[in-house]
């Protein structure tokens, strides 16, 4: 006995599920629908199978091969032009030399095939249609038989006025080879529209056998989901993959759960999945391979294919997700929503019920998507955010992504120019660094590998080496891991916005050259620059200390073990008695350990070399805004008459302080390059180089000899209050125009956003470049006034959005 599996379906009603898959390859609980048909045929001793294909045939061929791995023998017959159901089988006629069965690869059934085969032989039929009874027959061929099973009426897809039976054609046929002789070769010809009506008219042995059992044509998205729910309910006789850990809940191998994970079920969870704490899997969830469900996410009646990342506190309610989708934190996907491959859903997005998103789309953060997203490019083509390129490692930031990005970046330079590469000390960042280096070489750039480094050391090396720039990769080092990529120009600064746009255009258009093999760039390692940078920095500071004869200080330094390796000689050169600790080594908190150590101050240093947190000698954390003012004071005392950039959101105490010291503050955009460009004297800045800032603080404390807490108490009282307000992208301009009109008699600055000046303080309205939100910052001498100013402007914005 032989079989023909018809697997040419496009599945247009299943889109976007079938944008990259033929309909028979759409998965049902962990494997393609067609795989269940192969299992069914094998169960009844049918091992020789022809597969007819048209739409994306390689997907089927690549999965099943010659069939040996599945215990069958498969031959493929591909249509170059549409031939119809009967015409596609005619294409395999040379294979069909005995009674054979035709079955669809895109329907799920557990029919006992021996029974219709026996019926066919007993009736000596030329063609036997396997029938079943359904409640909604409109989408099928309706059939009526006499007492002997001979078909007496047949109507394909009737209207309700034409329905004469609830017995329908399942697309499973048992045929004799002679019936295929009636099908013209190479022409479109259909079983239901052409062959069977002819056999019926001629009364040429056309029979129907009504089977009991389960049958479902996954012809639309609703039926696709319901079929899998039926499988979970045990309505289909098949071997469910995975182990049933309790009634209705099946887990495959390698599933990692948390003790707080709630499995309600019925549900299936595929191999390699990770379910973090407080994840809830509600009823009728089907989760494929290698999905990661992050903390606090809740799923119910949802289907996920493979390799998806669902971030923290997502809610999926009746949605269907294909593969390699990233849904960022706190997003909601409504009933009947369907998401295609490689879609990125921004944090806080709300996908309304029944919305469909085609593959490779990007949904911006906090988007409310009411209609299907089918045509057009990605919702956002921006690679660079306010602080460079960042994302979740191995999801947003992958080796494939950085290879393409580095190629686009390097190709914008002349062949033979040199770039540095460097990274934080993490296995993944080192992997990306190697990928970036190879990509740069491929477009003719020479590469100097600085090894593990902090960003300020990378900028220092670029300036000393005289390279055309560099790429530095950072690791957040915190629980919510992020990977970021900084592009640095020849001056050691973040590249300009125009340079960013040039790289982005090259990246999206893939419009970049490749070097010839003779022009491949060189590669060399110079993994000592962080030490060189810290030596140079320590020498400059210690020289200042010698001139000022500063007394020795004691400091408690909390930093990663990797960074401490370099900090020990750094602080020794400064003459500082440094007590080095890591978070894991502290018996007490840092707040308690600083006064116990009788230290003059405490320092918590970020791994990126940019951020830091100061603590007083009493172990009290210095407020961020007060720390900013203090760092500027230390800088200005160390560089009399200097000019330094300050972001528009920084406290206004800076101006009066600078004036008293004969220095100049230049207000700039929040962007780090703008702040650094406005800063003279090598553009070293305490807000972006933590070790430079530490040196300034130690110099100032040593020079004054006054306890840290007392110095801070000398600053005039000031208070800043901040808030974020959601605002759709399309409404930002309207809101800003309206507020300018409302406050036309108020003094304003428009360096970055709009800063409104009032008698009792100021308010800064900043439209966020990365998110659909406004940031509000207010300063006053009173915390209540600062808060009131923010609330007043919040109310204005909300009124505009109504």
From TrEMBL:
* Domain (Nucleotidyl transferase) ranges: 2-229
Q: Which InterPro entries match?
A: A-D-PHexomutase_a/b/a-I (IPR005844), A-D-PHexomutase_a/b/a-I/II/III (IPR016055), A-D-PHexomutase_C_sf (IPR036900), GMPPB_C (IPR056729), Mannose-1P_guanyltransferase (IPR050486), NTP_transferase_dom (IPR005835), Nucleotide-diphossugar_trans (IPR029044), Trimer_LpxA-like_sf (IPR011004)
| Ranges of residues in domain Mannose-1-phosphate guanyltransferase C-terminal | 264-367
Gene3D superfamilies hit by this protein:
Alpha-D-Glucose-1,6-Bisphosphate, subunit A, domain 3, Alpha-D-phosphohexomutase, C-terminal domain, Hexapeptide repeat proteins, Spore Coat Polysaccharide Biosynthesis Protein SpsA, Chain A
Indicate the segments forming the Alpha-D-phosphohexomutase alpha/beta/alpha domain, all copies.
Answer: 382-512
Q: Which protein family is it in?
A: Belongs to the transferase hexapeptide repeat family.
Record protein name field: NTP transferase domain-containing protein
